[in-house]
């Protein structure tokens, strides 16, 4: 347990650093795009590019990491590659104009906007996609319901702590320092600090040793029982030349997409309901978080982000952005507080009431922001949404661990879809012992469809436990990996950013007011309340439906 706790600390150190970069870095993206000449409706669409890429790639990452094998583990290779993308984005975004000037020898060039959009999309995509293998790594180390709830409470705590640090960095006016002015201003200084913070957190992942899953241990135990000749044949590193091994690796990668499609198309109902509820909940929260800085800067402070730096309209907008950063900082503080007591709250109140109350509170908070111009009241409401943020970071993943820990109950509502139970295996053994003829059983065995081939009763009795899992028709839920379902939940998080980003700019232009951001968030929260009531929180929910 002590070893796993240290591993959890190292994982969450990177989680915290990643959230610091996304929180502080994202605050400056809207004003930087608007300053570069991008219209507001297109600015919101730029924010959707990273999540759209994530929707395509993140499920593949989750599925591929479930079956990946390397000396560095299953999850870390994906984490490291995605982190390199985050670092590249952090380096390019604040220095876009400098890079373009060096390449074209011109102060302003049309390539500046595409390069800025590319760097932003790279950082957003890699940063958000990196959470999937990190969450899968946490679930690998803490697979049970109770321990996963504790682990993801710590995970949520570190996410919130990272957000606190990131938003606090953005809330402070650093331009009074001569060093900041020399480095290129507030944005450039913040991104340099983020780069060093992220590098320090990334270094810790080299000391993580991934534990083997139950399935891997069973596979190794089975190989160890085979003759030595078969062991050598089963080991690709010994039996195959490097070029053949490489070809097998490419084949495995190419097979990920159709395999993932098969898993998602036959998604268990409990995962589907959780996905829809989480999608609506995150969509409401993201409609608030993504555009809160623009809402405060333009709506409450009457700032103009497109004006030149130093002008009165731009100064008011920058003050509003810093005030919005303070509100989001308080949101993260609230999330940290609730993360510390989440386990006790789940035991005392229950997961259902907590989840429903979180989306109801979000609906009320965003409704107050829509009708109020009081910056203090709006900031208090922003802080209150930290409760919703904390719940969405913990409960969906805890429920996923619960479903996987008791797949017979949650992944099927039909007895014919359940795996064989121990009493069923005993009946099969009894039937085999009473049989003296070689035969082939077709159709059903004790109510379960499938075929059981064998050459003799003795041979079959000796290998029944192994063959029954291979020859019975496998159910999709039985083949699902934790990484796949976590990736599906993360896809809900990514999709929740795509829809607001694509349409919010047009909605704001239609109503000529940034207050439309908060109004849409409130309406989406009401939709989330309905779908959240359909989530399966315990076995009784399945029986009731």
TrEMBL record:
Family the UniProt entry places it in: Belongs to the glycoside-pentoside-hexuronide (GPH) cation symporter transporter (TC 2.A.2) family.
Signal sequence coordinates: 1-23
Pfam families: MFS_1
SUPFAM superfamilies noted in UniProt: MFS general substrate transporter
Chief location of this protein within or outside the cell: membrane
Cellular location(s): Membrane
Residues spanning the membrane: 42-65, 77-93, 113-131, 152-169, 189-208, 270-293, 323-342, 354-371, 377-395, 486-508, 514-537
Membrane association type: Multi-pass membrane protein
Entry annotated with the keyword Transmembrane helix: yes
UniProt keyword annotation of Iron-sulfur present: no
GO molecular function: sucrose:proton symporter activity
Keyword annotations from UniProtKB, A to Z: Membrane, Signal, Transmembrane, Transmembrane helix, Transport
Name the UniProt record assigns to this protein: Solute carrier family 45 member 3-like
CDD domains found in the cross-reference section: MFS_SLC45_SUC
PANTHER family named in the record: SOLUTE CARRIER FAMILY 45 MEMBER 3 (PTHR19432:SF37), SUGAR TRANSPORTER (PTHR19432)
Gene Ontology CC: membrane
Gene3D superfamilies with a match to the protein in the record: MFS general substrate transporter like domains
């Amino acid at each position: 347990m002590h070893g796993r706790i240290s591993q959890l600390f190292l994982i969450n150190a990177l989680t915290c650093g990643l959230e610091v970069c996304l929180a502080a870095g994202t605050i400056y993206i809207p004003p930087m795009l608007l300053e570069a000449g991008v219209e507001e409706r297109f600015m919101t669409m730029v924010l959707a590019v990273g999540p759209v890429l994530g929707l395509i790639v993140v499920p593949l990452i989750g599925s591929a990491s479930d079956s990946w094998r390397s000396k560095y583990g299953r999850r870390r290779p994906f984490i490291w590659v995605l982190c390199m993308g985050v670092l590249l984005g952090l380096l390019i975004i604040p220095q876009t104009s400098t890079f373009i000037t060096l390449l074209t020898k011109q102060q302003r060039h049309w390539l500046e906007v595409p390069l800025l959009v590319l760097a932003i999309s790279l950082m957003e995509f890699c940063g958000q996609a990196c959470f999937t293998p990190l969450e899968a790594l946490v679930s690998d180390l803490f697979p049970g319901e109770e321990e996963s709830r504790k682990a993801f409470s710590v995970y949520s705590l570190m996410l919130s702590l990272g957000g606190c640090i990131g938003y606090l960095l953005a809330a402070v006016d650093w331009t009074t320092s001569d060093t900041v002015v020399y480095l290129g201003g507030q944005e450039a200084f913040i991104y340099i600090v983020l780069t060093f913070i992220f590098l320090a957190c990334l270094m810790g992942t080299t000391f993580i040793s991934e534990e083997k899953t139950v399935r891997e241990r069973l596979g190794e135990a089975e190989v160890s029982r085979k003759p030595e000749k078969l062991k050598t044949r089963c080991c690709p590193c010994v039996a195959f030349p490097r070029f053949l091994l490489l070809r097998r690796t490419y084949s495995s990668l190419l097979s990920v997409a159709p395999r993932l499609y098969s898993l998602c198309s036959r998604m268990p109902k409990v995962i589907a309901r959780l996905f829809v509820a989480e999608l609506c909940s995150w969509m409401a929260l993201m409609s608030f978080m993504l555009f809160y800085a623009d809402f405060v800067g333009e709506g409450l402070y009457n700032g103009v982000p497109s004006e030149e730096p130093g002008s009165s309209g731009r100064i008011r907008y920058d003050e509003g952005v810093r005030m919005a950063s303070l509100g989001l900082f308080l949101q993260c503080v609230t999330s940290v507080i609730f993360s510390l007591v989440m386990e006790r709250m789940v035991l005392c109140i229950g997961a259902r009431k907590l989840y429903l109350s979180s989306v109801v509170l979000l609906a009320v908070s965003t409704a107050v922001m829509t009708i109020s111009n009081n910056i203090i009241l709006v900031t208090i409401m922003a802080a209150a949404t930290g409760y919703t943020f904390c719940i969405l970071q913990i409960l969906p993943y805890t429920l996923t661990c619960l479903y996987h820990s008791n797949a017979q109950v949650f992944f099927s509502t039909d007895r014919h879809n359940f795996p064989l139970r121990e009493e069923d295996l005993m009946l099969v053994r009894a039937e085999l012992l009473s049989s003296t003829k070689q035969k082939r059983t077709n159709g059903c065995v004790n109510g379960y469809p499938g075929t059981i081939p064998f050459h003799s009763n003795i041979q079959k009795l000796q290998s029944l436990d192994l063959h029954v899992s291979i020859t019975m028709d496998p159910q999709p839920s039985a083949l699902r990996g934790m990484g796949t379902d976590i990736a599906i939940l993360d896809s809900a998080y990514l999709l929740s950013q795509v829809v607001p980003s694509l349409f919010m700019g047009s909605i704001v232009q239609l109503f000529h007011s940034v207050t439309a951001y908060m109004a849409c968030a409130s309406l989406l929260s009401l939709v989330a309340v309905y779908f959240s009531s359909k989530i399966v929180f315990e076995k009784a929910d399945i029986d009731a439906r």
